[in-house]
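Two records follow; treat each independently.
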Amino acid sequence: MKKISVAIVEDDPVWLSSLKIFLENEEDLDVVATAATQKDAVEMAKNNDMDIILMDINLSENNMDGVYAAAEISQAKNVKIIMLTSIESEEVIRNSFTAGAVNYVLKSNYMEIPAAIRAVHNKVSPVEILLKEYSRMKEAEQVAALSNAEREILSLVQQGYSQSKISEVLFKSPGTIKAQINKLLKKMGVANCKQAIKKINTKGILK
C-alpha cells in the first residue's frame, strides 16, 4: 500500500513532535518533512515531494504567516495544503482558502487530522469541507447564544422532564417555561424539543 506523504509546518517543537508521532502511528501516512518558519516552509516544499502539507496558520507571535506561506507554495507547486490553527474565525477560514488551502482543522480537534488528510487526498470537494466547518461553527454559535436559564431548561428537557415538571422544578409559571422553550428552539434553529435533543446528543454541543 502506497502511503500518503505528509509534511508539517509548525513553530511549536513540542506540538510538532507530538503530531509527527501521532500521524506516523497511522499505517497509511508518512511524515516526510517538517519546517518551522514561513521561509523554511517554502524551501521545504521546493526541495521535497509530498502529497499533503499541514500548515500552522501562526508561525510567529502575532502573524498569520502560515497563510502567506500557503499562498506562495500553492502558486509554485501542485500540493494540497491543510491549515492547522487554534483560531476559530470565519475570516481565517476565508483567508486560508483564498491562499490555496483545501481544508482547515482546529488543533483542538487533532484526532480529525488523519481523516482530513485522507479526505483531501481522495479529492473531497473543498466546498464540502468549508460548508461542513461553517455548519459546525454556526451550531456552536447557536448554543453560545443561549442564556443560563435557557441552558438549564434544555438540560432538563434532555433528562426527559415535561414542561409542567420543569415549571415545578424551576418555580416558574408554565407560560414562562413555554415562552423560554420557544425562544431557545428559535435560537437553535429547530422546530421542537425532539429536534433540539437530537442536535445536542449527536453534536455534543451542550457542555
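The next record belongs to a different protein.
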Amino acid sequence: MLQAQKVRLTDFLDERSAYLTQFAEDANAEFDKIGENALKELDEASARIMENLENRMQAFEETAEISKQEIEKNERILEEFEDKIDHDRNEGLFFKNLRQKAPQGQAEAMLERQKIREVTKESAGSKVRRNIYLVLMSLLLVTIGNAVLATPEVEWRKVAALGLIFFGLLAQYIYEQSLSSTTEKTDKKNE
C-alpha cells in the first residue's frame, strides 16, 4: 500500500514537473517571439525614417541643382544681352567696335560668381541639414543602446557597423558646422 502511494506520488510529481517545464518553455518562446517582433518593428521604423530622410535630402539636392542651373542660364542670357547692347551701340562705328569690353563688366561678373559660391556654401551648411544629421545620430545612438542593453547576447558586428555610421555622421556634422561658422565670420567681416 505504501509502495503504491509512493509510486502515485512520484507519478504525480513527474507529471507536474513535466507540465511546469513545458509551461516555462512556452513562456520563454513567447518572450523570445515578442522580443523578435519588437526588434523587427524597430528596424522597420528605422528603415522608414531613413528612407524619408533620404527622400528629403534628395529633393533638397535636386532643388539646389535646379537653382544652380537657373543661375547659370541667367548669367549666359545676361552676357548675351550685354554683347548685343555693345554691338548695337557700336553698329556703324568701325573703330569703336574694335575696342575691348570694359573691364568693369568682367569685375562685376567675378563679384556675381563670388556671391554664388558664398550662397552655395551657405546652403551646404544649412540648419536643416545639420538638424537631420542630429536626428540620424540620435536614432543611431538609441539603436546602439538597444542592441547593447536590451539583448543578453550582443551582436558586436551590428554595433560596430552602427558605430562606424555614427562616427561618419558626426564627422559630416562637424564639417557642416565649420562651413557655417566660416560663412558667418566672412559675413561679419564684410559688414
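Discussion point: The CA atoms of residues 64 and 123 lie 8 Å apart. How would you locate this feature using only the C-alpha cell line?
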